[in-house]
Task: inverse folding
């Protein structure tokens, strides 16, 4: 078994496969102990519909998730999330991850179940999202991989899929990879392969000064799996969907580090510049008098999903409490800037946001909780400024876009197989995917089914020619002393995509964009240079970014009608 | 307004053009920070026991795993770029 990508989904796929007793190799570009978008933490685990306190069934919740996105959602993968996410949480606990308030820090809180000591977020009545101590998760997953004998190959970037007889569309029988420290080229054979390499980034957004902060996700999540999959003949869907950017590190403020009311900060009180409290309303516009009501469905409502901000066009059925829209607030005389009013929150809610969720969420323990505290921020007395509406912490232009909010990805069947024999996909590799629980549940599920396939797969020799062609392709930048750097090419791709595949899309624009990208492919890629294996990895990533941009343009050209939910 | 001097405990970017400040007096050169960095932006010091070298600081994702894993408090600190700094004020204050 070969697993490509050592984030949450990849680790779970490797663990599931190793538990079945097969040999597993895990290839990760960074360091498996910390890699991936959720390597440094996770503050809430969504859609744990089978936990003993849940007021919704997996079927109800999956149907709601599909309906809330107008049908443009991955019903299969989210059903797996709803059915098995809670099992993975219990697995994590057995590995040493913390999922309960075992020290009774929140004893008596409205969001706590006294029997199980679980803490819940958002809908306190229906209790299907758990607050968790996710900074304990990744190291536990890594240790479990090692304990089970998974061969973990870190600092190594998978570059291509190898197919039977070297044929595009053929059965996947292995992969090539290159080490970012030594430059060693690897050819890996596999009975089955799980792709778990996140989703494309840096297609429209790129900062030459602070490239590591170009996007919300880690800079090395560049959609390498998408690029190699497309070249191998994998089918995708919804790749034409992109949304106006919501997050980057460079164009906005640190994620979860500004005053807001969503996600990690749900349902924090807000005040305006003069200290006037911002009103909260339910889905029907009914004014909510107490903080407690922000965590409850409206009268007559069965349950709500996440409390605003998840779907771009949420259905009334599942719409949660929220503050009034900013334009309405300004009309009513509220004054910018707004601030998060942690001191105005009940004590246990305040501590659940600042200290538990801001602290356990990825990228918050050191950069936000520790650093802000060290600089004097006190949640009992300070108001934290807000810089955007909803959960945003910045303002973006219409052409500054991202693959976010259930973007496109690989098509899958009920076993999380792609259309290519021997190739499975998990986590953000899948279309319409998001979040930690989804990555964990689909990773484990894909790992199990890939093992079943591998057990019965006939041996097939690697095509030496296919591996050699790939070796020559990826090593070429090391041989050039002069030429283009990866940053220059990434900036060029982002510029072309902003111009030709921004808020407005027409066939002429898209075709012009494709011609511009073809030109980059033909004339600039052969000039790329890398001074060492580290720079080679960065260079190969941008070659994948260019490939993914082309994939998005082709998907856009194939679309013949506007679509609200695809924001196209 | 936030007291900027309190946020300014980190290095000025002119002095250390980097997201990370490593105190060479406190650092034992164990390289744990280097090994958990998913971006792989550091190199080991050529001399054993020396502090890691920030080879590709601009690739930092400002996630902080390096600080969390460091066994010596204060030996490595993460400092957001100035453009990323956020304001707060006392609740009673109107400034």
Result:
């Amino acid at each position: 078994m070969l697993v490509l990508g050592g984030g949450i989904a990849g680790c779970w796929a490797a663990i599931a496969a190793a538990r079945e007793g097969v040999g597993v190799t895990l290839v990760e570009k960074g360091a498996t102990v910390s890699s991936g978008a959720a390597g440094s933490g996770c503050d809430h685990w969504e859609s744990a519909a089978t936990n003993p306190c849940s007021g919704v069934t997996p079927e109800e919740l999956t149907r709601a998730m599909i309906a809330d996105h107008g049908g443009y959602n991955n019903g299969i993968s989210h059903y797996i999330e709803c059915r098995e996410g809670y099992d993975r949480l219990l697995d994590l606990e057995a590995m040493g991850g913390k999922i309960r308030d075992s020290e009774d820090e929140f004893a008596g809180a409205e969001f706590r179940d006294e029997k199980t000591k679980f803490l819940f977020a958002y809908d306190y009545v229906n209790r299907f999202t758990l607050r968790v101590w996710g900074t304990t998760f990744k190291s536990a997953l890594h240790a479990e991989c090692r304990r089970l004998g998974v061969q973990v190959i870190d600092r190594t970037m998978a570059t291509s899929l190898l197919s039977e007889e070297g044929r595009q569309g053929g059965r996947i029988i292995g992969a090539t990879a290159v080490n970012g420290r030594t430059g060693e080229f690897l050819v890996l054979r596999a009975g089955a392969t799980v792709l778990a390499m996140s989703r494309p980034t840096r297609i429209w957004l790129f900062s030459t000064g602070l490239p590591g902060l170009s996007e919300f996700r880690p800079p090395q999540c560049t959609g390498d799996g998408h690029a190699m999959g497309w070249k191998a003949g994998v089918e995708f869907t919804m790749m034409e969907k992109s949304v106006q950017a919501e997050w980057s590190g460079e164009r906005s403020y640190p994620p979860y580090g500004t005053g807001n009311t969503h996600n990690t900060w749900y349902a924090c009180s807000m005040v305006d510049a003069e200290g006037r409290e911002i009103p909260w309303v339910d889905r029907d516009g009914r004014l909510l008098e107490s903080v407690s009501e922000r965590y409850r469905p409206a009268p007559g409502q069965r349950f709500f999903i996440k409390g605003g901000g998840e779907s771009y066009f949420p259905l009334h059925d599942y719409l949660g409490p929220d503050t009034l829209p900013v334009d309405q607030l300004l009309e009513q005389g509220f004054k910018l800037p707004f601030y998060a009013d942690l001191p105005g929150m009940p004590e246990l809610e305040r501590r659940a946001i600042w200290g538990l969720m801001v602290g356990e969420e990825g990228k918050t323990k050191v950069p936000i909780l520790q650093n802000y505290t060290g600089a004097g921020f006190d949640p009992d007395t300070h108001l934290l400024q807000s810089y955007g509406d909803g959960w945003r912490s910045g303002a973006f232009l219409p052409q500054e876009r991202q693959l976010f909010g259930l973007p496109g990805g690989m098509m899958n069947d009920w076993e999380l197989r792609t259309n290519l024999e021997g190739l499975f996909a998990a986590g953000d590799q899948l279309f319409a995917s998001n979040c930690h629980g989804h990555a964990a549940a689909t990773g484990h599920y894909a790992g199990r089914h890939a093992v079943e396939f591998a057990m019965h797969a006939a041996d097939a020799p690697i095509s030496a020619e296919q591996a050699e062609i790939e070796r020559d392709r990826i090593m070429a930048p090391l041989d050039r002393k002069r030429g283009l750097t990866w940053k220059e090419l990434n900036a060029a791709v982002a510029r072309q995509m902003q111009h030709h595949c921004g808020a407005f899309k027409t066939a002429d624009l898209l075709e012009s964009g494709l011609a511009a990208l073809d030109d980059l492919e033909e004339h600039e890629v052969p000039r790329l240079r890398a001074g060492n294996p580290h720079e080679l990895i960065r260079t190969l990533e941008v070659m994948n970014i260019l490939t993914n941009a082309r994939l998005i343009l082709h998907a856009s050209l194939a679309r013949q009608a506007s679509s609200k939910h695809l924001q196209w | 307004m936030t007291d900027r001097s309190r946020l300014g405990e980190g290095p000025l970017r002119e002095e250390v053009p980097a997201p990370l400040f490593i105190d060479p007096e406190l650092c034992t050169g164990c390289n744990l920070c280097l090994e958990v960095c998913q971006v792989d932006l550091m190199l080991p010091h050529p001399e054993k026991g020396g502090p890691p070298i920030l080879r590709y600081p601009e690739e930092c994702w400002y996630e902080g795993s390096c600080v969390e894993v460091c066994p010596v408090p204060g030996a490595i600190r993460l400092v957001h770029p100035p453009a990323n700094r956020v304001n707060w004020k006392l609740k009673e204050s109107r400034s």
